[in-house]
């Protein structure tokens, strides 16, 4: 691979914004990719993947390069040189790479890789929490997998097409080849990365991009077309849209969130997907919740969480997450379980889900709930713990509870 100066500059600019100004990596990369209209898909891929890689490996690369935060541009070029050297890419004779100690970089990599928190490039506290909660063997494998690049998975919108038809359309119109995934009825996996958002199929709402594990959640809720369903933490609606397609656009879904901006995105996506059985409700007081007490056949609580199951997609979360946030989010998780479970009607069902792999956010929350006053009306039906290193997809948790008659 040959390094191109303007692409490398874009990466360094992006890293400055992410590391020094605390901006979100996905937003920064979106902006970077708009910089030069002449960039082809390989150029864009280089900018996005290299930026994500250096974000992912920040701690390890900074240790190898012997630089400390806040990073100046020279520091970032040194980290870039570490990335290139470890990838076996020949460094051009630009001034930024003068005197790069190639052999020393490889030696330090071997040495530092003996320590998990350096090898996997994570903060000390995260390594401690993962070890305490999952144990040595599972945590080591899980965090290693969380550092791999995730596959691109589509969820077919069965309101508009079938998996077979979409597979053919993507292949014929866009040269995008996909395969089915056993056990995931609506999923198509891309054989090679591609920008699927520019296809007509996406613009016409034939699919959404959604990880395979995330696709299990709506299925777990066991919805039927005539039901009244409340999606309490709907965000931009990844799971709401899936629920709507499983309900064949019938019945009624109330999608709620504390952020109106997220529900606005859901509105746009629902229109594209041809979904018209969803009402949007901002949670700006306890009123909209209380109004729905004992009304819903199904309630989904896709709770806010650490996101420790989806680090492959959000590597900068490693550096943004803090132990204090973890403590706060566990409190919120129990609160939403206590409050939102009251919307389930007798005989109705509740799914509590997170994209975390930590028992303290998952099964322990469910146990605490079931042992509490509000939980005594519910029985535990089943749960599913999805680890990325076992499934090959995102880490997720989902529990199905049923309210007694
Ligand atoms: C895991 S995300 C939801 C993802 C979404 N369900 C999807 O499938 O795309 C959690 C959501 O909970 C929302 N949230 C945070 N605190 C909340 C609360 N107290 N009540 C309701 N929603 C909340 C966040 O704004 C966020 O959108």
From TrEMBL:
The molecular function GO annotations come to: methyltransferase activity
Give residue ranges for domain SAM-dependent MTase RsmB/NOP-type. 142-404
This protein's record includes keyword Magnesium: no
InterPro entries in UniProt: MeTrfase_RsmB-F_NOP2_cat, MeTrfase_RsmB-F_NOP2_dom, RCMT, RsmB-like_ferredoxin, SAM-dependent_MTases_sf
- GO biological process per UniProt: methylation
Annotated positions binding S-adenosyl-L-methionine: 257, 284, 302
Keyword Methyltransferase tagged: yes
- One family name in Pfam for this protein: RsmF-B_ferredox
Superkingdom assignment: Bacteria
Q: Where is the active site?
A: 355
User: What Gene3D superfamilies does the entry give?
Assistant: Sun protein, domain 3, Vaccinia Virus protein VP39
| UniProt keywords, alphabetically | Methyltransferase, RNA-binding, S-adenosyl-L-methionine, Transferase
Q: Which SUPFAM superfamilies match?
A: S-adenosyl-L-methionine-dependent methyltransferases (SSF53335)
Similarity remark: Belongs to the class I-like SAM-binding methyltransferase superfamily. RsmB/NOP family.
Q: What is this protein called?
A: Class I SAM-dependent methyltransferase
């Amino acid at each position: 691979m040959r390094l191109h100066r303007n692409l490398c500059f874009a990466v360094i600019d992006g890293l400055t914004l992410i590391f020094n100004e605390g901006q979100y990596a996905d937003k920064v990369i979106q902006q970077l990719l708009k910089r030069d209209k002449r960039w082809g898909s390989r150029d864009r891929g280089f900018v996005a993947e290299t930026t994500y890689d250096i974000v992912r490996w920040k701690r390890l690369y900074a240790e190898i390069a012997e630089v400390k935060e806040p990073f100046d541009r020279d520091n970032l070029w040194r980290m870039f040189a570490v990335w290139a050297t470890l990838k076996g890419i020949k460094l051009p004779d630009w001034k930024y790479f003068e005197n790069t100690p190639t052999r020393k970089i490889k030696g330090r990599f071997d040495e530092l890789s003996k320590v998990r928190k350096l090898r996997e490039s994570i903060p000390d506290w995260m390594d401690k929490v993962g070890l305490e909660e999952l144990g040595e063997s599972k945590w080591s494998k899980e965090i290693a997998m969380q550092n791999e690049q995730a596959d691109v998975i589509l969820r077919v919108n069965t309101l508009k097409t079938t998996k077979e038809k979409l597979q053919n359309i993507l292949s014929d119109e866009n040269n995008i080849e996909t395969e089915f995934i056993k056990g995931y009825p609506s999923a198509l996996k891309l054989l090679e990365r591609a920008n699927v958002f520019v296809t007509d199929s996406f613009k016409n709402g034939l699919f959404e991009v959604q990880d395979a594990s995330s696709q299990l959640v709506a299925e777990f809720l066991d919805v039927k077309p005539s039901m009244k369903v409340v999606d309490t933490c709907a965000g931009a609606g990844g799971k709401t849209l899936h629920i709507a397609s499983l309900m064949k656009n019938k019945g009624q879904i109330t999608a709620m969130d504390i952020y109106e901006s997220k529900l606005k995105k859901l509105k746009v996506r629902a229109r594209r997907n041809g979904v018209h059985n969803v009402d949007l409700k901002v949670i700006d007081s306890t009123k909209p919740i209380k109004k729905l007490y004992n009304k819903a056949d199904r309630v989904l609580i896709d709770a806010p969480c650490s996101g420790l199951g989806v680090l492959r997609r959000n590597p900068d979360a490693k550096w943004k997450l803090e132990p204090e946030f973890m403590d706060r989010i566990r409190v919120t998780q129990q609160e939403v379980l206590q409050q939102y479970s009251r919307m389930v009607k007798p005989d109705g069902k509740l799914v509590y889900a997170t994209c975390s792999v930590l028992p303290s956010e998952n099964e322990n929350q469910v146990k605490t709930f079931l042992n509490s006053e509000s939980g005594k009306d519910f029985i535990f039906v089943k749960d599913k713990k999805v680890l990325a290193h076992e499934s090959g997809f995102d880490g997720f948790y989902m529990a199905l509870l049923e309210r007694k008659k």
